[in-house]
Write a structure and sequence with these properties.
about 110 residues, mainly alpha, two-stranded antiparallel sheet
Length: about 110
């Protein structure tokens, strides 16, 4: 048996309480609706994804050109920085450029 935070015994099954409350907490933690909104408007969603994930040494020029005209570029970059995206072009920046940006911010 395990004890919960109130000291009551619990089995191996989690006591989630009211589903509505849990859904609210999960929605705050993983705000999928807001995330999907900007991602659906992103220009990269309408183009070949391979341009945004070039092979090592490959050109990032085409992806960055597309990002320049994208209305959600700032949202994309913010997402990449918050989620520590390590591959691909996000918000018009490569992984190396995002690392430099993070270092300057610290």
């Amino acid at each position: 048996m395990r004890l919960d935070t109130s000291g009551r015994e619990r089995g191996h099954v989690m006591d989630w309480g009211h589903p509505e409350e849990e859904l609210g907490v999960l929605t705050e933690l993983f705000d999928v609706s807001e995330e999907q909104e900007w991602q659906e408007r992103a220009l990269c969603a309408q183009t070949d994804p391979e341009a945004f994930f070039p092979e090592k040494g490959g050109s990032t020029r085409e992806a960055k050109r597309i990002c320049q005209g994208c209305e959600v570029r700032a949202d994309c970059l913010e997402y990449a920085l918050a989620h520590d995206e390590r591959f691909g072009i996000w918000g018009g920046l490569s992984e190396r450029e995002r690392r430099k940006l993070k270092k300057r911010a610290v």
